[in-house]
Design goal:
Blueprint lengths: L4 H10 L4 H8 L3 H9 L7 H11 L3 H4 L3 H5 L1
Helix pairs in contact: 1-3, 2-3, 2-4
Length: 72
């Protein structure tokens, strides 16, 4: 699945979380969060997507990159 990195960053900041805090909540490394947010690693396993959604209390639509955004 493909994550929209800038959206993830905005959601994290809105939740008043640091990358380190989000990483701990989603059981990922801080470096992995950074890679996802900067677009260096936009494609992630479904489990990672699920863990990020749970940690942020958001929905799949909130962080998934959709085709309309990719084409525009």
């Amino acid at each position: 699945m493909e994550i929209d990195g800038p959206k993830l960053r905005r959601l994290r900041e809105r939740a008043l979380m640091t990358q380190t805090e989000l990483a701990a909540a989603a059981q990922l490394s801080q470096g992995r969060i950074s890679q996802i947010e900067t677009g260096a690693q936009p494609v992630v396993p479904i489990r990672t997507m699920r863990d990020l959604i749970a940690a942020l209390g958001c929905t799949l639509d909130d962080i998934e990159r959709n085709e309309e955004e990719i084409c525009s």
